[in-house]
């Protein structure tokens, strides 16, 4: 079952060689500063994200990585700086507009809807694409019904892709941590986003599960061309799958570049990695 | 092993999306509906119909309304009775002022008026949460009842401020006997319950639950908090409004605003908590529990030949104790208990998966 | 005699979901024991069974018993267990959001009848381990970052000065350097203060590096146990838990789509 | 407008507010320390007052002998509540616990009437409920001596409880429990004992409120309704703040009286029922956690 | 068909109004027991069943529906609750069960042409309000002396409190006194602002149209604000021991309306002797015998038993009468002083004579005053207010009701 599902989603593994090349800059963060009361979470940070790339953000605990993601999708409003998204300067925007413009994300502390099943959680991801009025939905009739079924098919594709068929009707609250992370990814994918923000998607997983997760991320990036911004503490993963890495420390940017550049950056080694490059 | 899904394969998402995907459930439901429509009016006594079943159905409807707001959208409300009052008094006035208005349409208009009031009082929920909101909904409760006692127009200048529901006549048929009233209420409740079930299993319902479970995340995903919450208030109040109108028209007949007091709000709240927060079925189970339990306790207490005051107090104590007991046994309510029962049945004869 | 022993425990959630199917394990005094296993294997459940926190989650221990220091403890309250020297760091942080970091740490010392000076010393020790916490000591825990909360949860458990600690995924969400530090602290406490550890961990490599002994849990059953060295040497463990197969470590980029999924059948 | 009258209304309102605060404290105590919104507080007030009066009647003892007996009863009640209701419901959602307290309210009301009868009783404290002559003569303002005493008692209670919460280890533990039962258990906070103590203290607070309100209005079932007066106080002051209860009480008391006297006549009167709620609600729009309540943490 | 005369009693003995409920229903049952001890009504035993309503309309309706079919069908019902009474109002004519509303409920129900099955016996709120003004006029030395006086109507802000307003307003116009209306939000556990307003207005009299705990609070707050209690005149719901006892000395001098002359009567002695001495009394506390609520219960039962006698006289002595027949009995009551004397209740309640037009049958009340220990009547004679005025109002509103309900007013045979 698992295999057949994977089969229909993926062509044989030849595509590594044909990995998409990173395109033009899609998201440009300029001089972002954010503070909470006295705590400076981010100070004057600039970096960009190119289309189709996997961009990692790393840094010690409390460096401001999650806050950065929150700024990108409009949960926090930076006190300073601007965000250029798809070539347009983005004014103060709330998370709803961010979602509408194609930014989806997962959360560090899993933010699934605990009382709903896996399938329903994934369906919520498609809400922006649903058009029928609530009266139609109440009648569950005609277009509303067709729409629901069409979206259900999409959701099922994602379920197959993430290999979580067996738990589609389980309330997410009952799932073990690792699977919840996977469902959260599914919910974000359901929105068919242009940019996917992932906050520690592999925390609390063992190697095998991390491998699965990496595979999903790479596939998404690959097949749908989704741009991915990733926060992760597992250096193995970050160095292996990301195209470029930003390093934050105490709200400041201390490094930016390809994994290999970053790995050998002395500041980064001091602040975060601890060990030098080979 | 009567109850099992094994062998019932769904070949389309459409089939899987049915309200009751399991055949046995569907059969049981149809049988129950048939029973309720045909057998009950024939066999049940006037007492059962007019003192048990009608209020049970009306309270179930109100409980569905509250469940939409509290159970699905997560906004704890203590003002249910106020919305019921708006529904009742609005229906009364519509019929009074617009002669010839069909009664059912008046109920709908009553519900819509309640929905408007609901939206107005739902606005604070955008900022206020949890018990703060719950306590604030009491403002609705007191304010609405106050308005109804203070504005004589609403009670048609009746000296004592009571209204007397007009007779229910639909297409020339008078719904005046318990049987007919019962059938009317049954139909209204069944249709509205079906609509509610549809809502909660489609996108609106998911938006409510998302807001309930984690509103920040819901916003990030793209739900609009304001629209979602206000819609929940509106739909919920609509249901309560219709229930309130039925309460006046099909049950009490003559009502004073006091009939929609805080006590009633609380009773409906009990229903959804005992029955199951976030479950349409639970609304029915809870209503049955709260309607029947006091009656049963009363009958039992009196058959024990205790002095009446002792019996009445014991009744109250047992009622309270049973609420606690059920919460301890299953904090998610009777609906959850029912579900566990079904799961057990499915696994039978094995104790667990 | 072992310090902590779990004998043939069976756990059911919600009356119908059987999660642990007869788990037995031992933690000898002064040793570090690692509990490994995939997601949903039942590691957290095992730990919660030991610390009797299961009751609050509608889980029931239907079989088996837990002994700590030679005494049956499965009927005790968590508070009595902490008093006897057994603390738990729960999965998912569980800091008291409205309390400041320092207040969080101080609640950890609730069961101790410590003087002000002693408390201060204990606090300093935690701050010494986690300097980041010292910086954030007055912030409400609810507003600190994920990693800071994790440190706070670990620090809080240390405040009780336990003789045995159950650690549930201490490395989750923690920067690699600090992960090493945390395990360093574990080793430190273990060797200097003879504290025993039972740690559930996904980061198998590091867990086996520091542990003396390991159990592997699959589907609610112990499928393999042995010294840490033996486990690290096992081919299956290598492949599935350490991510190295015959040819050495594979890049995460080059994962095959269809892997041989070996599952232990018990 | 007659200024003297204005002040009379104001002062009367402030003092009534203190009486509300007295009940609100009981709520705050439980909420702050366990995250439970205790709906049974009103029933406990009634139960305490009725027990006190019932004991004097049944055993023919003086009030001073009955109070210690009632204290013991309230402590037993607290222990029973923990044992029977709270312990099995550890770690359940707030709404479940809230519901359980409603069940408790029914039980306690039934029990109170079963034990002592449904009759209406009088309770006389040795403080006369007549206008203070001193204030009457000096400032020509009518303020009851009783109310002044009640205010003093209330102030004392609040100070003591506020100190308990902010300065002691138990206070800290209580706040921890309110945040996360499971984690509180894990760090070794003896939830059972703490809850039993807490509910006993809440029982004592209820007794104080019951005695004062009972002396004011007579000991009768309606004492359970004073809880409704305490709710707006609670949301205005913040569920988690002792000083909030007092300040909220003063604000609510004063503004509701002023509104009733000076606005009421224009709209048909009787606005006291909803005015405090609407006021509190408007206030919450500005500060959703009340005046002094702990900020609700919403973060992802 | 059972031989018993069966009465449905949807009562309330718990909750906020338990004190009143237990006294009232206690009185009824005591008197029933007394009658049964002496062989019943011409040999017909009375049976009854109680059902706890908690004063809640919805539970009251359930109780009514449950009780009405038992024992071959209830022949009379009395809920002592306006809400419950309204809830079953429409059902009575269909079920052919008469309902009494002794001293409460809608006043215009006294019109038997529109409300054939409803009997607000002895006094309705309107006649009571009229009598209050009459009393105040007399107290001031004549109705003309009321001119320019200030009377505060302090009322429970509900249907109950608003009921007397039309009468009071009409009388204010007629006699030229100023009526100041001050509502109290139920349940009325705080009245500081109202009493400050009253103190400010310096009225000559305060009518306390209160209920339940509101009364004690009103009296206490009056004391706290230094308002003389003897200027307060309560409606009968504010004139029981339950309203004054909890206030301690504060109620000394307070006056209230009553339909029973406080005191002791042979019938009460008999109840003491035959029932309580034998341990068969209904009240938990024998000291409450003869209390206001208890006496009212006994009075209600006396009138019902008289109605049974009247009906039996017409439809067959010694036989149980049906609800319809008992309705006739209630409509043709004639309990004069001689009859009351025979019962041992002379002066305990006013004579009652009903007719199709007048289901109230009396409208006479007394004023009583609390001396700190007990109630004492302070008007030797029964007071009757301006009945012509209330009659006119009654015709108007009941006919409006009939029009709304499409009822053709007519007397039943
Ligand atoms: N809403 C907030 N209010 C106050 N302080 C905040 C808030 N959000 C974040 N902070 C602070 O900002 C800093 C950065 O937090 P952030 O969550 O971005 O860290 P992070 O890099 O994601 O760390 P980790 O790896 O531990 O998750 C932290 O010190 C945190 O305490
Ligand atoms: N409260 C609960 N109700 C129902 N099922 C639960 C509950 N908690 C856990 N489970 C189930 O029990 C199984 C074991 O869960 P547990 O949390 O012990 O796994 P774990 O090994 O700690 O996994 P992870 O590595 O993801 O933390 C899982 O399948 C999970 O779905
Ligand atoms: Mg983070
Ligand atoms: Mg775990």
Automatic annotation (TrEMBL), chain A:
Q: Which GO terms describe its molecular function?
A: ATP binding; ATP hydrolysis activity
Q: Which residue intervals define the domain ABC transporter in the entry?
A: 27-275
Query: Know the name of this protein?
Result: ABC transporter ATP-binding protein
Q: Superkingdom of this entry's organism?
A: Bacteria
Q: Which UniProt keywords apply?
A: ATP-binding, Cell membrane, Membrane, Nucleotide-binding, Transport
Q: What is the lineage of its organism?
A: Bacteria, Pseudomonadati, Pseudomonadota, Betaproteobacteria, Burkholderiales
This protein's GO cellular component annotations are: plasma membrane
* CDD domains for this protein: ABC_Mj1267_LivG_branched
One Pfam match: BCA_ABC_TP_C
UniProtKB/TrEMBL annotation, chain B:
Q: What is its main location?
A: membrane
Q: Which Pfam families match?
A: BPD_transp_2
Per its UniProt entry, which superkingdom is the organism in?
Bacteria
Kindly state which keywords UniProt assigns to this record, in alphabetical order.
Cell membrane, Membrane, Transmembrane, Transmembrane helix
**Spans through the membrane:** 27-47, 53-69, 76-95, 101-123, 130-151, 182-200, 230-252, 264-297, 317-338
Q: Which GO terms describe its molecular function?
A: branched-chain amino acid transmembrane transporter activity
| Xref: InterPro entries | ABC_transp_permease (IPR001851), LivM-like (IPR043428)
Sorted alphabetically, the Gene Ontology cellular component annotations on this record are: plasma membrane
Topology relative to the membrane: Multi-pass membrane protein
Keyword Transport included in the entry's annotation:
no
Q: Where in the cell is it found?
A: Cell membrane
What PANTHER family does UniProt report for this protein, alphabetically?
ABC TRANSPORTER PERMEASE PROTEIN, HIGH-AFFINITY BRANCHED-CHAIN AMINO ACID TRANSPORT SYSTEM PERMEASE
Annotated protein name in UniProt? Branched-chain amino acid ABC transporter permease
From what organism does this protein derive?
A: Duganella callida
Automatic annotation (TrEMBL), chain C:
Question: Which CDD domains does the UniProt entry name for this protein?
Answer: ABC_TM1139_LivF_branched
Would the keyword Nucleotide-binding turn up in this protein's UniProt record? Answer: yes
Residues of the ABC transporter domain: 4-244
Which BP terms from GO are recorded? L-amino acid transport
| Cleavable signal peptide | none
Instruction: Output the superkingdom of the source species.
Output: Bacteria
Q: Which UniProt keywords apply?
A: Amino-acid transport, ATP-binding, Cell membrane, Membrane, Nucleotide-binding, Transport
Q: Cite a single GO MF annotation.
A: branched-chain amino acid transmembrane transporter activity
* Coiled-coil residues: none
Q: Which family does it belong to?
A: Belongs to the ABC transporter superfamily.
> What is the name attached to this protein's record?
ABC transporter ATP-binding protein
This chain's source organism reads Duganella callida
- High-level lineage: Bacteria, Pseudomonadati, Pseudomonadota, Betaproteobacteria, Burkholderiales
Automatic annotation (TrEMBL), chain D:
Domain of life according to the entry = Bacteria
Q: Does the keyword Iron-sulfur apply?
A: no
Query: Its Gene Ontology molecular function terms?
Result: transmembrane transporter activity
Q: Which GO terms describe its cellular component?
A: plasma membrane
Its record classes its membrane topology as: Multi-pass membrane protein
Q: Name one Pfam family in it.
A: BPD_transp_2
According to the record, the segments passing through the membrane are 6-29, 36-56, 62-85, 97-119, 139-165, 194-213, 233-254, 266-286
Where is it mostly found? membrane
* Stored InterPro entries: ABC_transp_permease (IPR001851), BCAA_transport_permease (IPR052157)
GO BP terms, alphabetized: amino acid transport
Q: Where in the cell is it found?
A: Cell membrane
Q: Which UniProt keywords apply?
A: Amino-acid transport, Cell membrane, Membrane, Transmembrane, Transmembrane helix, Transport
Q: Which family is this sequence assigned to?
A: Belongs to the binding-protein-dependent transport system permease family. LivHM subfamily.
The UniProt entry, under PANTHER family, shows:
ABC TRANSPORTER PERMEASE PROTEIN, BRANCHED-CHAIN AMINO ACID TRANSPORT SYSTEM PERMEASE PROTEIN LIVH
Q: Per its record, how is this protein called by name?
A: Branched-chain amino acid ABC transporter permease
Species of origin = Duganella callida
Q: What is the lineage of its organism?
A: Bacteria, Pseudomonadati, Pseudomonadota, Betaproteobacteria, Burkholderiales
